[in-house]
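Rotation project, supervised by the postdoc (A.L.). Task for the rotation student: set up a whole-complex structure prediction and record inputs and outputs verbatim in this book. Inputs entered:
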Amino acid sequence: MADILEIKKVSKTYNADSDNPVVALDGVDLNVAEGEFVSIIGPSGCGKSTLFNVIGGLIDDHHGEVLIEGRPVDGAHKDVGVVFQEESTFPWRTTLDNVAFPLEIEGVGKEERDALARKFIKLVGLDGFENHFPAQLSGGMKQRTAVARTLAYEPRIMLLDEPFGALDEQTRMLLGDKMLEIWSALNQTMLLITHNITEAVQLSDRVVVMSYRPGTIKEIINIELPRPRSSEVISTPEFGTYVGKLWTLLREEASRGMEEAEAEIAAT
Amino acid sequence: MSKLHKMPIVVGLIGLLACALILEYSVDAGWVMQLVVPRPSDTILAFPEVQADMDLFGNFFVTLAMTAAATLLALIIGVPFGYFLYRNTRYGVAYEGWLAAAFAAPTVLLYPLFLVIFGRSHATLIAMGFIPGAIPIIIQTRQGLLGVSKTLLNVGRSFNVSERDMFWKIQLPSAVPTIFTGIRIGVMYTLVNIVAIEYLIDFGGLGRIVSEMYFRFDTPGTYASIIAVVFVSVFFYWGFGRVEKWLRPV
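Outputs recorded:
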């Protein structure tokens, strides 16, 4: 399939003018095909979220280019939707109104936007909770609301910034199954940031392993497990092989990240 | 109303009744001087007398209207000014300390100045109520907007939200609880100032009745009019609670 997203030599340095510049990304190149599910893993501080902010147009003072279907991204883009790691539902809006939010912004009439919002609420399995406020929902339900809201925006590319990171392992795996259902139903291009190797293998066509600072792409692993997949795939020997391979790649970077973080703390 | 929501009201009323009964008994037993604190039953009986003598009910609405006008003015000026200080970091940082200091100052002592400017009129009452009411609204509006979660702002940006929608649909609803804390604090200070000025300049409203009853040594009448002031406070507290609930259901 043709590439929908091209990331060319993207670099980003924080505090560039100071004595302590932090190189978050250094010459990152990545192409993503339409309908592909790609996960990005790496130790904390490797620039994963920075990369997503660059793709999502939330950071513009970077070097390099991000192209969507050959067109450069300049600022927030209708073709890119983001699901954030932190709690991001609007507490003063019901599930229905949260999901309808991007449609409301686009000026879609109430009746039409409510009907569309209901469709996406059903897709994420929250039908029956349309009139609940986020405070009345569990962590997993809130994140599903955020996923439905981004889906309602109908982006070509969906960026999932560790959306299930705060959830327990079982819920995370079940929501992984739900994401696979949505992905195959919509043929949606998805990029996922995760710290969880199991989740990355369970969901992805490819897993991108990033190095600790400066953030570069260390290796890209193709996950050739049969589809359709569910969380049951974790019991297969092939799954274990992929997890082992990824951990070997990640272990060295994670250790370096931990050592450097400890050295920074000791220096302060 | 659910059972859970009714419960605090019932418990509160039972507590109030218990305190009144204890006070009634304490005054009867001579533990509390009746000259200083009247029996609650005497205070209740004083209401019709104060009404007949000084139109308690009518003056209740005068104080209510003055407080509402001063609070409205404080809102009209306070919220946009708070927004201005939020948008202009330099001014926000520069003036926050001054505003906090002004809030701590006893602005009620400025009343002679306002008497000279506006005379012995409702305008003086509104101006004196406005000053302590606006300051916490300004401070809390700025704080509320500064406290809006970065993630929620990023959600707005990711959906390409305009600056106008960002304010009305994300920043303002998010800041509502903090802004309403400022409004609640502000309205209480507004009421205190207005009643104090009514008392001091002997002009209109419940403050004037408190003053009159006090100088007549009519202790139950004084307490009855003070209770009427408490009702004005309760009205605003309840009213702003309803408005907040409407703007931010949870």
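Student's summary: The longest strand of chain A covers residues 3-14.
Supervisor addendum: Chain A has two domains: 1-15+30-79+157-268, 90-154.
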